[in-house]
Specification:
Among the domains are: 38 residues, no CATH class; 138 residues, no CATH class. The protein is 32% helix and 19% strand. The chain is built from 17 helices and 17 strands. The longest helix has 15 residues. The two termini are 40 Å apart. InterPro entries: LRR_dom_sf.
């Protein structure tokens, strides 16, 4: 008699203990895992190289059962010629080229066979018509020449998948912005559901002329104006010295009626924002619709980058505290952190502080994210007092997590909190222990277990040490101790987002 299969909920719980790459290896177990594996395998399709595996990947999209699973198309055509490569130069002559003179004239005049690149682009154009559930398109082009065949392929994309496309991410240099965005602006009628735009401006190996940044800015302005009635989300990130002040000055006078989320990832300095007042004016102009604001003093990359420009971001926050009000802002993700100043006795750490967020800047603020730097307990007190105790969700990184900090979170700083994500460098019975021993950790758990917060309505918790990977390594025992302190049914997120496989 066959054994009944496990329900899908149990399988999903089992898979939480394994990396996503493990899912395809389980495809032969049952139909449910087969579908999960197929979704994982074909959710994203990439075009990077002009080789046989890429050709085979797009040929597989000719099958409707595969194509319907594609959600994201990632284009990073490394096979395009570089800007410094002259395509007009003749190819190298082979030592047997004289044999071509022996061919019949009919063969000489025949059309040369298509290259592997042309075949891939042709197959991809045909196959994408089956990807009716495609939602996101990412284009990454640096110092390359966009050939006519690749430009035609891009134009074909809007005809095939434009109807379902919602998000567009472009990562390129300032010199390439005009050609890329101008061609997309012409396709407005073909992408009616497009509502999310992300632009990452990268450095180039070639110097820019004085006119190219201005031309790029004008193109961005025109692009946003074309889609302003649709755009809900805009994200700007720059690694280069690209001045965004003229762009914000222009957009201040052009209301974006549906803009609810705005992200800005850059090193704030005079070269990237020559007039900080322009950013303030832009935010104020869209204050009635803006609900989610991200301000990070670094580019949007999954790599280490020094947090330069922090002090300028902090000064700007204090400057705008009396100048702007965002009445509908409910989520703030800000990269404020400590600064270090030269002192006669050595480097001195400046204390982190925020202007009064509630009710001055964001009277409806409910979600705060501070994960750039580990805060001391005094700094946590300072930044949370700026929220006036109204937060429902908090994500923060602290130096030392102690029972005293938990007392303050539950009773003073965040009495309305429902969702807490807290990463720590260490734990201790007080806020000054530099490196806790195992016995100290046990003492912390014991002290927390004896506490009760009957009025604290916490419902979701992620708590643990922040690893070198940047993610929280959940401390399940400590999380359980915190869970037992409240009377509500707390959902503890005990699975790690990374796969460092720390021993617990």
């Amino acid at each position: 008699m066959p054994t009944p299969d496990l329900p899908p909920e149990i399988w999903l719980e089992i898979l939480e203990y394994f990396p996503p790459t493990f899912v395809p290896k389980m495809m032969g177990v049952n139909r449910f895992l087969f579908e999960l594996g197929m979704n994982y395998k074909y959710e994203e399709v990439r075009l990077i190289s002009d080789d046989k595996p890429s050709l085979r990947a797009f040929q597989q999209l000719g099958h409707q059962n595969i194509a319907k699973r594609v959600r994201h198309l990632y284009l990073r055509p490394a096979f395009l010629p570089g800007i410094d490569e002259d395509p007009s130069l003749p190819e190298a002559t082979g030592c047997f080229d004289w044999l071509s003179s022996l061919k019949p004239s009919s063969l000489k005049s025949s059309k040369p066979p298509a290259t592997i690149t042309e075949r891939i682009l042709q197959v991809a154009s045909r196959s994408l018509t089956n990807c009716t559930n495609l939602r996101e398109l990412s284009i990454v082009i640096y110092d390359h020449v966009v050939t006519p065949s690749f430009a035609a392929f891009l134009d074909q994309i809007w005809d095939t998948v434009g109807e379902s496309l919602q998000k567009l991410s472009i990562q390129t240099t300032a010199a390439k912005i005009p050609s890329l965005l101008s061609s997309i602006s012409k396709q407005k009628g073909k992408i009616p559901n497009f509502n999310s735009f992300e632009l990452v401006i990268m450095n180039s190996r070639f110097p820019l002329s004085s006119q190219q940044p201005m031309e790029a800015t004008r193109t961005i302005e025109q692009f946003i104006m074309v889609f302003k009635e649709n755009i809900h989300h805009i994200s700007f990130s720059t690694l280069t010295t690209f001045d965004l002040a003229p762009l914000f000055q222009y957009l201040t006078n052009k209301l974006l009626p549906k803009l609810t989320k705005f992200e800005l990832w850059f090193v704030m300095c005079h070269a990237t924002l020559s007039n900080r007042a322009n950013l303030s004016s832009f935010l104020q102009a869209n204050s009635e619709t803006l609900e989610h604001l991200v301000l990070q003093p670094r580019p949007k990359f999954d790599v280490f980058f020094p947090d330069h420009g922090i002090d300028i971001l902090d000064r700007w926050l204090w400057e705008v505290s009396s100048a702007i009000t965002l009445p509908n802002l409910h989520t703030l993700d800000v990269g404020t952190t400590a600064t270090w100043k030269d002192d006669p006795q050595g480097w001195a750490r400046g204390r982190v502080s925020l202007p009064m967020l509630v009710p001055d800047i964001a009277p409806t603020l409910r979600h705060l994210i501070l994960r750039n730097y580990p805060f001391s307990i005094a700094e946590v007190k300072s930044v949370l007092e700026a929220t006036n105790g109204v937060l429902l969700s908090l994500e923060i990184w602290v130096e030392i997590f102690s029972p005293k900090m938990l007392d303050s979170l539950a009773n003073e700083w965040t009495p309305c909190l429902r969702d807490l994500t807290l990463a720590y460098c260490n734990i201790g019975t007080c806020a000054t222990i530099p490196d806790a021993t195992y016995s100290e950790m046990l003492a912390v758990r014991t002290q927390i277990s004896s506490r009760r917060y009957p009025k604290w309505g916490l419902k979701r918790l992620r708590l643990g040490n922040r690893g070198s990977c940047g993610e929280i390594h959940v401390d399940r025992a400590l999380s359980q101790a915190v869970k037992d302190t409240v009377t509500t049914n707390v959902e503890v997120y005990d699975e790690d987002k990374c796969f460092c496989y720390r021993s617990q």
